Input
Amino acid sequence: MAELPSLCALCLDVVKDQLLHDSDIIHEVYSFPPELFNCLLPRLSPLALQKLEDQMPDDFGSDCEPVTDKRKRKRNSIFDQSWRTLYMCRWPCLDSTTHGEEDKHKYESVDDWQQFYWESHIQSCLDAAAEISLLPSYSDRVSVRDLEIPDIILKYLFGKGHALDFMNDCKKLSWHCHKFGLYARSLRLRNVMCVAEICDLLRNSKLETLELRWMKAQEHVQGLCKLLFQINGSLTSIKFMHCKLSSGFLNSICNSLFIDSKTHGLQHFSITASSILEKDSCIPVGFTSFLSSGRSLSSLRLVDVGLRPNSARSIFSALIDASLVVSVLDLSDNNISGCFSNLRWIRGSFEDSSFGLGKSLQCLRILNLRNCNLQVSDANALKYALIHMPILEAIDLSDNPIEDEGIMSLFFFIKMSEQQFHLVDLKLANCELTCFGVNQLLGVLSTTIKPLNSLSIGGNDLGKNVGAPLGRLLCTGIKFLDLEDIGLGSPGFLDAKEEIKKTLEVVHINISKNRGGIGVAEFLSKLIKNAPSLISIDAGYNFMPVEAVPVISSCLKSVQGNLQHLDLTGNNFGGMSVLPEFHIKGKLVVNYDSSPPLNAPYDDEP
Ligand SMILES: *[C@@H]1O[C@H](CO)[C@@H](O)[C@H](O)[C@H]1NC(C)=O
Ligand SMILES: *[C@@H]1O[C@H](CO)[C@@H](O)[C@H](O)[C@H]1NC(C)=O
Ligand SMILES: *[C@@H]1O[C@H](CO)[C@@H](O)[C@H](O)[C@H]1NC(C)=O
Output
């Protein structure tokens, strides 16, 4: 026989249902003894919880925790816990292994679960409404605000078993937006939602972050501009994806971002996987003035938007002339070879620092020019630009055929300029470099710049002779090293191993696809013993023979530290089992091809 519910549970269920209909009961609920109150909260549906919290008496909870700031009090309170639980019930991806880390990071930054719950709810409603309006059966005559929210969403709000038909209004998108829109700080809108009515739907929302998808038509751009006008005081970040923005559209959008005639408050502007500007034209005047009037603009991303040399040059020109403080500039995945020639800074020389150009670039910390089809000649021109970026910390030039000559020209120039440079993160994967160029580069870097924090030179055909210099580089305190597919071979790894003579600070190293054979095992055993901070190693596809297994197993036995991930897939262990031999303290996942379990965490602590 099923267990009978207690009398208390039955009463609380009655209270729970009453709360939705009858406001008088709220006062009674707040005078419940704490034990009873705490039993009731987890039973409440989002709507009931909202109603209860909206009418919280001023002195509630003040005897246990004398906090005057209501917001703070709420955050600490059991209400916040209840909102978190409701969120997790509705969007339960925290436990899934695939999103685990990402979600964990996202959830750690949540400081108000009530806000986060309703923001996510509004997003779900907008997404559902957009889906419906795309159905062939959808009639244009249905106004966006009257689009019906699916029952499955409503059930979450009212709780299980609740009759949904007593309030017809709540089926409409507008009811949700008007009631909970004030909690939305960050939203994603599809083109179809960017119509004139969106301003009314989001009239309560103080949006800070807005992401737009599939914007292509005049009608939607107009709707968006109205919305931007409405939220001009709160918006700090805007992002476009999969859009087609002509110069005219870009002009209108930029013009709508101004708070008054002179300034805008945007901090992040991003367009990705879209097409902007027809042919290879200069950027339109609206965008130029947007760039030159944003005192607060700190990141600009125009990634994979079909920029060509002239349009890219006009962006750089605008940045040179502007007095803003962009710290992140990302123009990756555009074919812009030639864009640095004829720029004004070419005429200035680094001895003449009073030239006054590139003021805005002086704050640049991160420059991403990955996959821009940059050649030797571009590197030759780019070096003059680097002079105007004295605090640049990270540069990504991967996937550009820059070659040894380009790289050496770039970095010898930096050395010659005798300026204080801060470059610590360097990505030069797939740049058609050779051992000669990389060895020269490592030499320059070790004399001019602070020790590198990270270096990526994967996908260059470097060969075994770079082994010893890389071993020495490891000893400089570098933390992240990507050496995938550089043809080190077994001798290269053995040379690198010989150079390891001290405690290393390396955290992540990627040495996959290097035909390293037994040399990898020898290298790893020295590395693991000497690098207590090491968290992950990717050593897959190295033709490691079966003889490598005992070498790796024995060094793993002595692991004390933080190592969490060791990838050994794609080696020739011939079915030999590595895992059972390991006796490891802490948490280590070893991936290798053999019998399962492949991804199971290996943890011998109870
Ligand atoms: C920004 O918004 C405020 C208030 O909504 C409005 O008064 C002002 O005209 C707007 N400015 C621009 C340039 O749109
Ligand atoms: C990049 O542009 C050049 C012409 O400027 C063209 O020859 C080349 O094919 C383009 N590369 C790609 C990957 O589109
Ligand atoms: C190793 O480097 C390659 C190329 O950069 C990358 O695709 C791969 O994800 C890296 N492996 C790890 C474990 O980071």
